[in-house]
Design brief:
This is Integrator complex subunit 10. One of its GO terms (biological process) is snRNA processing. Keywords: Nucleus. This protein folds into three domains: 121 residues, Serine Threonine Protein Phosphatase 5, Tetratricopeptide repeat (Alpha Horseshoe), CATH 1.25.40; 163 residues, no CATH class; 133 residues. Helices cover 60% and strands 5% of the residues. The N and C termini lie far apart (118 Å). It contains 30 helices and eight strands.
């Protein structure tokens, strides 16, 4: 008769009663399900509903037992695929969930069946590989060789970083050994490429200590080939200098692989650390003072100071070691050509050229006129004693100075006779301090011993005072010996209290005949004579005292801004002295 529903089967009737009872009385519902399982022990629908009831009630152990029974029958396995997939997805995350807890309560044989079933029914290559990693993590005795070969040969490997990550981060730690050293070397190249790219990727920070993970891969290869355990187990606490000496000892080995892979890994790590510590700094030629003691920690013929200096020298020395002979240089070039990220192209080659004094290679292209390019030109032209272009480069850099002021650099001048380079912060004060320091040397080396030259030097040394105090004392001695000092820009630019006090002192010294022609033109005209200790004119002396008081009152002005104004305004004077 139309409208009448077909009679309900006994199984469906019991399931329906169990579901209704579950809303009000879980014990009654379980009783119904127990009855159903007893009457129909092989009925898939009843077994599955029993599992769902335990799952919905949050009963981990009972749900595990029910699902194990379903898996053992295997008759209706296709109907379980969605649940098997859900379990596999739960296991991929590190978070604890009901399904992951349930899986842990299932016996290993059935766990293996669940994972294999999920693996066999995955169509996507990436998903297949992830499930295989999951399977091998749970059952490492199955071996990872097939997965490694699948991943390393995957066509998508080179343009889909997920494959590289799956291979390097998740699969390689599962390896205990591989029969083929050639395959291990391929894996090491993949690992170097992945981790070197990863540390420069600012969007990802979820891998703890990537460099140590890379050394773990190096250790895997090294143990198989009998390499020095110190070289393949480099840790954060080990000394870079000692490690480099170990690398040096491999220069003449017939098999260059240990030097190639250990040296490349060490180089990339040192370069990354240097880049991380360097921040907004630029490598420039700095100065040395043979009258001062050299630094205690000497690294060679060239001293490097400032941020990241030690890391830079480690990278530079290792780079040169990897180019020390034709064989290792060729192999290093082949290796680096396989890496996707080459950070040394971002300034390192130019820094290295400057470090080794190869100025033609370090010089920026003529088309580049940014602040960094101008500072590099200043540095190189100064070293080549091309002083006029150096001053022009300084003048070109002044309008480009950054707004951040920064602080004075204490290591622009170091003791000793070695060539000296310094990582200069790209902020206004350090850059101007560097320019002033170079201009002082340019003026001293100009061969021009006029009062104008010495006056300019007095102006420029104010910014880095008292770093140039020894030069100041020499100038004072010259003034005393000559008995006169003419500098018409004195009132405009000399305001440092220590310099003013010293000049006032020599003016007041008893028994000396020192004439200081330093008053502004208007006051000079009124006095109509030089100010000196031999002058008895009280009016002129009073003019001098008032002028010095005026200068002292300006001692709190910004010397930094005054230096910018001086170099800009007195450009013709500076170039004329040359």
């Amino acid at each position: 008769m139309p409208g009448l529903e077909p009679p309900m089967s006994d199984e469906d009737y019991i399931i329906t009663r169990a579901k209704e009872a579950q809303k009000h009385n879980i014990h009654s519902a379980k009783a119904w399900m127990l009855t159903a399982k007893t009457l129909f022990p092989s009925n898939f629908k009843i077994q599955f509903e029993a599992y769902l009831m335990e799952k919905q009630s949050g009963n981990v152990q009972e749900a595990a037992e029910c699902f194990s029974s379903l898996m053992m029958s295997r008759q209706n396995l296709p109907d379980l695929l969605s649940e098997i997939s859900a379990i596999a997805n739960a296991l991929k995350t590190t978070e604890t969930s009901f399904l992951s807890q349930m899986f842990d309560n299932i016996i290993p044989d059935i766990q293996l069946t669940i994972l294999k079933t999920s693996l066999e029914n995955s169509d996507d290559t990436m998903e297949h590989c992830r499930l295989l990693v999951l399977l091998l993590k749970k059952f490492p005795q199955l071996g990872v060789d097939s997965l490694v070969k699948t991943l390393i040969n995957a066509e998508k490997f080179f343009y889909d970083n997920r494959y590289a990550r799956l291979l390097v981060v998740e699969t390689l730690p599962l390896l205990s050994s591989l029969e083929s050293p050639r395959l291990l070397q391929r894996l090491l190249v993949k690992a170097i490429d992945f981790y070197n790219s990863y540390v420069y990727d600012e969007t990802e920070h979820d891998i703890a200590d990537p460099w140590q993970r890379l050394y773990g891969v190096l250790d895997l290869l090294g143990r198989q080939l009998g390499w020095d355990s110190y070289l393949v187990n480099y840790s954060n606490s080990l000394n870079k200098d000692t490690y480099f000496q170990k690398l040096l000892s491999l220069r003449n080995c017939e098999d260059c692989r240990q030097l190639l892979y250990c040296g490349t890994t060490f180089f990339l790590r040192a370069l990354y650390e240097q880049r991380s510590m360097k921040g907004n700094h630029i490598l420039v030629e700095a100065l040395f003072d043979p009258d001062q003691p050299p630094p205690k920690r000497r690294k060679g013929d060239v001293e490097v100071t400032g941020a990241s200096a030690h890391q830079f020298q480690a990278a530079a020395n290792c780079w040169e070691l990897l180019h020390s002979n034709e064989v290792i240089s060729r192999e290093f070039s082949k290796l680096t050509s396989q890496l996707q990220v080459k950070p040394w192209t971002e300034g390192f080659v130019e820094e290295l050229a400057l470090f080794r004094g190869r100025y033609d290679e370090a010089l920026p292209p003529s088309t580049s006129n940014c602040l960094v390019s101008n500072i590099v030109r200043v540095s190189i032209n100064f070293s080549l004693k091309k002083y006029a272009p150096c001053i022009e480069n300084i003048l070109g850099a002044l309008p480009q100075l950054p707004n951040v002021e920064g602080a004075l650099e204490t290591e622009l001048i170091i003791g000793g006779k070695n060539r000296h380079l310094h990582f200069l912060p790209l902020s206004k004060m350090p850059i101007m301090h560097y320019f002033c320091t170079l201009l002082i040397r340019i003026l001293l080396n100009s061969g021009n011993n006029s009062d104008l030259t010495y006056g300019h030097i007095l102006v420029l040394m104010q910014l880095g005072w008292p770093q140039e105090e020894a030069i100041f004392i020499r100038i004072l001695d010259i003034i005393r010996q000559s008995g006169v000092f003419h500098y018409h820009l004195f009132s405009a630019y000399i305001i440092h209290i220590d310099i003013l006090e010293e000049l006032s002192f020599i003016w007041n010294e008893q028994g000396n005949n020192v004439a200081l022609d330093i008053l502004p033109n208007s006051q000079q005209h009124l006095g109509q004579r030089r100010i000196g200790t031999r002058g008895a004119d009280k009016g002129v002396k009073e003019d001098f005292k008032q002028a010095m008081k005026a200068q002292v009152s300006r001692s709190n002005e910004s010397i930094l801004n005054l230096m910018i104004q001086f170099i800009t305004s007195e450009r013709s004077y500076l170039l004329q002295i040359l």
